Every structure is written in C-alpha cells, then in structure tokens.
Amino acid sequence: MFDYKLLAALAAVVEQAGFERAAQVLGLSQSAVSQRIKLLEARVGQPVLVRATPPAPTEIGRRLLNHVQQVRLLERDLQGQVPGLDEQALPERLRIAINADSLATWWAAATAEFCATQQVLMELVVEDQEVGLKRMRAGEVAGCVCAAERPVAGARSLALGAMRYRALASPAFIARHFAAGVSADALVRAPAIVYGPDDQLQHRYLAGLGVTGAFAYHLCPSSEGFVRLAEGGLGWGLVPELQVREELASGRLVDLLPERCIDVPLYWHHWRNGGELLGELTERLRRAAGGALVQVQPGP
Q1: What is residue 6's predicted lDDT score, i.e. its pLDDT?
Q2: At what angle do helices 59-81 and 30-44 cross, to 10 degrees?
Q3: What are the residue boundaries of the HTH lysR-type domain, all occurrences included (predicted)?
Q4: To the nearest whole number, what is the mean pLDDT of the chain?
C-alpha cells in the first residue's frame, strides 16, 4: 500500500523544482522532505529522483507521479459525492502544460466558467507546442495542450483544431527590407523573430519556400512580446492570426505572403483515469476550441 505523504513529497519536489520550495508548500522542513523522499526510495527499492537542478524524476518516479496526479483527481470526485470527507481549505489546483499562443488567445475564454463553477485554481506551465507533452510524460501535469497527437501511456488525446500562423511585419520593416518585393531570399536576409530554441515554425515556413539553413533571428520567449517586436519593426515572424486581428485590420502589421500560411494542429491530452473534473474540462475545451481554432479536415 502506498504512503501518500511520501508521494506528495515527491510531487511537490518535482512541481516546485526543488526541495526548499517543496518544503514551503508542504509546511515541512527541508530535511523532512528529504527524509520522505529517501523513505519512498527505500520502499520502492530504487531512486525516484535524479538529484539535479532542478530535480528530475527517474522512470519509476514518473510512474509514481502519474499515479498521484490521477489519485488527486479521483479523490476530488469522491469528496464531492461524500461531503463529510471534504477537508480541503483551498480549491483544487490543476497543473496544465500549454503553449504560449493558446494562452494568449483562446484559453481564458474557454476555461473561465469552468474554474468558477468547479472552484478550481490553475497552475499553467508554458511550453512550446512542439515539446509540451514532456511535462505530462514526466508526471508533472494533469493535462497538456500541444502539437503532438499520440498520447503518453495512460492518457487520451483530443484534436482541438489548428492555430493558423501568418508571416507578418510592420510597414516600416517591409519598406526597409522588402522594397523590391517579398521573396524567399529577401526573407532569409531580413532578421526574423523566433519564440524560442524549440520553435521551428520559421524554419518550416522558409523550407516551404525552398530555403533551408541558418538565418538571423531575435529570440523572444513571450507571445505578447513577439507581437510587440514585430509591430515595432525589429523583425518578421509567424504570428497566430487569432491574436492580431486588430493589428492586421489597422495596418500596423502586414501579411508578407497572404496566400501562404501554416496551420499547427493542437491536441488536448489528459489522464484516462482523471475523474469527472478532467472530463468536464475536456468537454468545455472541445466546444470552445471548435469556435476559436481552424477546423482542419483529415486527409484521405
């Protein structure tokens, strides 16, 4: 039988990225948290953490984290059915991995009513859509919005739709760099804006124009900041159409190649045994994303 105090210590260390902050969350001393981890490792007969900065779960640690995530959600269902068991002083906190562009556009409208009616607090972990699933694989989150279709073991995935990206720049930037017109060669020579090291959208866009290899770019790990840099004339970049309707309508940003866009499919991943809470969130996301995202028809 599991000792869930030990599992809670493991979850806190991974979620809080260290023993000190885990101790604060649990209301324990740092040495007490360390002792609980050592006791858990003694009981399972192998390490559950890699002592790095931040600490990372081992393979057995990931399995235990996945288990405790699902137990928390199932316990919440039981507390709702048996009110006498409800001893929570604070609402449930749901950890979700999400890409920055979804967070900047459709996510708030999709989840606001859910959080209010279910008395849920969210802890959002921002990751690029190409790599967000690693958080769920590590057992750190209960759900994930990302571009990967295949779920991890024990989870389900739901196709939400696609985020449509367009290559945009300010009129001043266009006048400075594309006076002779927008071409693949001119795009490579002009400075671009890239969200982060894992962001491959600009690379894919240029590859679609027949250009591969290195190009100069700013790094800007902020969805809102990305738009401000483009609007300020620092570079060109691929921006969600959903995010810049006003800027496009006013002419502050201009589509460099209106006939060309990139649709990035998004999927919602959640634990198969996530209980009623994740089930309701999944249904709300299904309805909201259907109205906000581009619905791409599957190929033959």
Answers
A1: 92
A2: 110
A3: 2-58
A4: 89
Strands 192-194 and 217-219: parallel
Alpha-carbon distances, residue 38 vs 46, 49, 173 (angstroms) = 10, 10, 57
Instruction: Tell me the domain boundaries of the chain.
Output: 1-89, 91-300
The hierarchical CATH code for the domain 91-300 is 3.40.190.290
Whether residue 238 contacts residue 163, with contact meaning beta carbons closer than 8 Å, is answered with no
pLDDT for residue 300: 45
- Looking at domain 1-89, does it have CATH number 4.10.910.10? no
Sequence-distant (≥ 6) Cβ neighbours of residue 128 within 8 angstroms: 99, 100, 195, 196, 198, 199
pTM of this structure: 0.80
Residue 101 has which token pair?
Answer: 């562009």
Secondary structure (3-state) at 119: coil
Cβ contact 229:262 at 8 Å: no
Residues forming a β-bridge with 167: 238
Q: Report residue 77 as tokens.
A: 């269902």
pLDDT lower than 70: segments of the chain = 1, 78-91, 297-300
Q: Which residues pair with 105 in a beta bridge?
A: none
Q: Angle 267-272-278 (CA atoms, 0-180°, nearest 5)?
A: 70
